[in-house]
Amino acid sequence: MKKWIPWILVVAFAGWIASTLLPVPVKDFDTRNFAKLPVLLNGRIQPMDSVARNSLLQIRNKQAVYLEETNAAAGGMAPKGTELTATEWLMGVLMKPEIADDQRVFRIDNPEVLGLLKLPDKEKYFSFNQLMPGYDEIGRQAARIDDEKIEAAKQTPFEKQVMKLANAMWLYQRLKVSLRPPDSDNFSHELERCRKDVAAVRGAAGAEPDMNRPEVAELAQFLSGYEAMARYAYPLVVPPADSVGSRDSWESMGASLTNSLRSDRIDPAVEHYATMVTAYRQGKPAEFNAALADYQKLLDQKYASEARKGRSEFFFNDFQAFYKAMIIYVLAFLLACSFWFNWSDWLRRSAIYLVMLAWSIHTFGLIFRMVLEGRPPVTNLYSSAIFIGWGAGVLGMILEKIYRDGIGSVIASVAGFTTLVIAHNLALGGDTMEMLRAVLDTNFWLATHVTVVTLGYASTFVAGFLAIIYVMRGMFTRTLDETTARSLGRMVYGIVCFATLFSFVGTVLGGIWADQSWGRFWGWDPKENGALLIVIWNAMILHARWGGMVRERGIMNMAIFGNIITSFSWFGVNMLGIGLHSYGFMDSGFRWLYYVFMPSQVLLIALGLLPKKYWLSFRQPAEKRTPVGPGKGGKPAAALT
Known about the structure:
- The chain has 641 residues and is mainly α.
- The chain folds into three domains: 25-313, no CATH class; 320-435; 442-619, no CATH class.
- Helices cover 64% and strands 5% of the residues.
- The protein has helices spanning 5-19, 31-35, 48-60, 86-95, 97-100, 111-116, 128-131, 135-147, 157-176, 187-202, 214-223, 227-232, 253-263, 268-281, 285-302, 304-319, 321-342, 345-373, 381-403, 407-426, 444-476, 482-518, 526-546, 552-575, 590-609; strands at 38-41, 44-47, 64-66, 71-73, 76-78, 83-85, 106-107, 125-126, 626-630, 636-639.
- The strands form five sheets. The chain has a two-stranded antiparallel sheet. A two-stranded antiparallel sheet has the order 3-6. The protein has a two-stranded antiparallel sheet with strand order 4-5.
């Protein structure tokens, strides 16, 4: 029976994954198809679903809203405890903001900010209406921080929370005016009135309106209500009139409406959105779904590529490949660790089979994301984290294939899970597929340099994780026998050789890319220095081994220190916020890197330097200690073997 357990686990998880692909029936408002509608934001076409998820991550740090109180949602009353998807929440903000304003979506963790706004200190989620009395104070504090030009790295926790909250409230208000004019209750009716007034003032086709006529003044006053939409709308939802128009031709609802006075026509997209807004507000799902279907037909006829992009990215978001891979990586890690304690081969095989399944899902997500972006998977910190985990998974599976001792499975699962968690936290800053800076959106050398050097990062981390396994097993278990220790030593040596080669070649390719992009091969930029540090440290490990300066444990400690150097070069230099490579700046990880990860590696090195008599694997139980001969005075002398 045990020989079938690995396959049973794989089939069970594969079935779970397949079940998430089944069609979801439409019960009320067709939120899933609304989520697929393409818009323009951050310089790229993306679906409403991405707008919703990225906005909610910035506001709440999550991609769903848990309603703690009974609330009107999706056109009706949602009972207490209902969880809204990101799209359901966004539809409420866009079309029925008076209800969304009472939903507790804004997260505040700093007690000083709670005290400033006179909010309960035992809660962490608050509604827009709860925050409004303190809105002016938030604005004053944010303006002070801007005026004093306090860098993010030097801001206090209070100042960071104020800036995060100010940006979240500003984003929320922009969303509120993106699809519906303020104080509008029947948008489609107002739009029909606007169309008639435009026709009346224009008179004969092509005639310029007489600005002295009272109808013109009335229409101008009517259209002024859309000024806020034109100025502050967040996503641009109206595609260009010409189906081959560029990204610059997309407009906000407000801009399209204010231009209608000069064009004697209202864009069909505006009409469809207006019908959807009115139907949603009036609780008429049939009318909403009909207008949505009509708009999708229009998109498929005139904007097929944009419609496909919206559907594809929605599928990617909804499938959540990286989240599924994280779950399977965790189970694989637990099974591999269990194998070390009872040596049942079905545990080892279960672990590696699950690693292979998780890695396959990881690969699917990586490739799908590459296709969506149309560029290599290493153009920002988020994508490089995913790619490093993927590369470490490859190395781990190769090690498991060769040694069959569970170590490769542990490496692959830990690296995969850890890097995907890092990527998730990086996504809290907003859109991870936004348009590249001009310096990055270049040529062949970008793909080769960043891909190769990132593989060097990944392999250096794998060597460090192998060294951690060596120290932890040797210090706290009796499983680090001589054979296992030698195997780990060979693994670390081989991977450091691989890491040295790829780090060096990737750094040289980076110099070629820099020469084409910036006109110089090397400029001692912080990121360039970090890449050089990795090459030098890996070379030092190899020279120390070849020269006999360190033995097995020494190499392991040097490999662990390589984790510190690599993490600093990968993340740390971005946190400096200076240099030509500061586009990946991520201040939120400063505490985790400098106060958690690096000290933990120093602690592991300290453990690795302890004499072997303190290592559990090198200690014998007292009953197995035997005298080896008489000592001075005829007394037996005990020795450890």
